[in-house]
Write a structure and sequence with these properties.
The complex is a heterodimer of chains A (135) and B (254). Chain A is mainly beta and 135 residues long. Chain A has 1 helix and 15 strands, in the order E-E-E-E-E-E-E-E-E-E-E-E-E-E-E-H. Chain B has 2 domains: 126 residues, Rossmann fold; 110 residues, Tumour Suppressor Smad4. Chain B is built from 6 helices and 16 strands. By secondary structure, chain B is α+β, with helices and mostly antiparallel strands. In chain B, strand 8 and strand 9 form a beta hairpin. Chains A and B meet through strand 1 and strand 2 of A and strand 9 and strand 12 of B. Strand 2 of chain A pairs antiparallel with strand 9 of chain B.
């Protein structure tokens, strides 16, 4: 009666790309919108939007996105400029970088975790704009 | 000036009554024009190209999906550098229910609706896609159990289980229009992969990719564009810089 559909939980509303369960994507995937992965991906994933990795997904790639929700098996580094959500079914082998993080019990993370505060991010941006200012 | 392109199917016995109705309606609405019959002509494209050369303002395809595809190819191949303003407006009057999926997509559900759409002249500037050397308006369907698709030079997609694989410029099904949120003026193709036996559009089972260019490998059996024309694999399918003004109805799918 109160059972929620777990696989659809927190899925982004406006979706640009969906990699379905029977699909295997190989190569460098560069997107602009939100991406849902339910199948498998090998290579790299870069998007300005949110990434949703389903509970049965297999990802062998480095991921760079705005926010990310990880549910499946990920071998590679994850960089999220915003929030990173790791749910209980996630199996991550790689480093993670994010601003805010939530980890559910039962999930597995083998790798380094780096977190940025807002002030740190502003400083990095300033350095990027004007790299000589420090010298 | 209106030029009506009559497909060979107008001479079928079952279509005679409908054709008489169409001609009567066109006369009543004051939209008469030149009639060009394609029956028995092998090189149909060159006949239509002649009409474009003689500066036809509106070309009306009377027939089915195949008639419209022939008209679009002839118009675009006649003048490769022209902008959509310089090219004639294209319209469709569907003659029979079968093989007429494009008319429904354009919001023209019946021959009468086609005549009325001509009168109301609701124009939509639509980007045209290309598969090898052939132009298409709506979609390219890929047939085959195992398919490998290369998206530009960046990545490839392997589809293991056969199902429906469509590269969509304009949707041929109403639910796809709502589901994929396709905009006719944007130079983007949507690749929609549906596993077998999927009845409802859902985000869990389907795969969707937005792209500009893809290559279908030779393992594919065949590719059908605009629900009528077969293209041999391997094939390159891409968006083009070409736009056409089409007369559409109110209840179109995009």
């Amino acid at each position: 009666m109160f059972k929620k559909n777990v696989s659809k939980r927190n899925q982004p509303k406006k979706i640009e790309t969906v990699i379905g369960p029977n699909i295997k994507v190989k190569g460098n995937f560069n997107g602009e919108g939100n991406t849902v992965i339910e199948g498998s991906l090998e290579g790299s994933l870069k998007t300005n939007g949110d990434v949703y990795i389903g509970d049965n997904a297999k990802v062998l790639a480095n991921i760079k996105s705005k926010t990310a929700r990880v549910g499946g098996v990920v071998t590679g580094d994850i960089y999220a400029s915003g929030h990173l959500e790791i749910v209980s079914s996630a199996r991550i082998s790689g480093n993670i970088e994010c601003k805010t993080l939530s980890v559910e019990s039962g999930s597995l993370l083998n790798g380094q975790c780096t977190m940025y505060s807002q002030t740190q991010e502003k400083e990095t941006k300033k350095e990027e704009v004007n790299p000589k200012s420090k010298k | 000036m209106y030029v009506y392109i009559y497909d060979g199917i107008v001479n079928k016995r079952k279509n005679r009554k409908t054709l008489i109705k169409i001609e009567k309606k066109i006369t009543d609405l004051g939209l008469n024009g030149k009639i060009v019959r394609l029956e028995g002509i092998k090189d149909t494209e060159s006949i239509i190209k002649n009409e474009v050369r003689y500066q036809a303002k509106t070309i009306v395809a009377v027939g089915n999906d195949s008639t419209l595809n022939t008209v679009i190819n002839a118009v675009l191949k006649q003048n490769l550098t022209a902008s959509s303003r310089e090219l004639p407006v294209i319209a469709l009057i569907p003659l029979e229910a079968s093989n007429n999926l494009i008319s429904a997509s354009l919001g023209i559900q019946s021959p009468e609706a086609g005549c009325e759409a001509l009168l109301s002249r609701r124009l939509k500037n639509i980007n045209i896609a290309q598969a090898n050397q052939e132009y298409f308006l709506t979609q390219a369907e890929i047939l085959g159990n195992y398919t490998k698709i290369q998206i530009e030079k960046d990545y490839s997609i392997e589809i293991k289980r056969g199902g429906e694989i469509n590269i969509i410029n304009l949707p041929l099904k109403k639910e796809w229009g709502d589901f994929l949120k396709i905009e006719s003026g944007k130079k983007i193709l949507k690749l929609l992969i549906r596993p077998p036996k999927t009845t409802r559009a859902s985000l869990i089972s389907e795969s969707i990719f937005s792209l500009n260019k893809l290559t279908v490998t030779k393992e594919t059996k065949k590719i059908i564009i605009d629900n009528c024309k077969e293209i041999a694999a391997p094939a390159t399918i891409k968006t083009t810089d070409k736009f056409l003004n089409l007369i559409v109805g109110k209840n179109r799918y995009f």
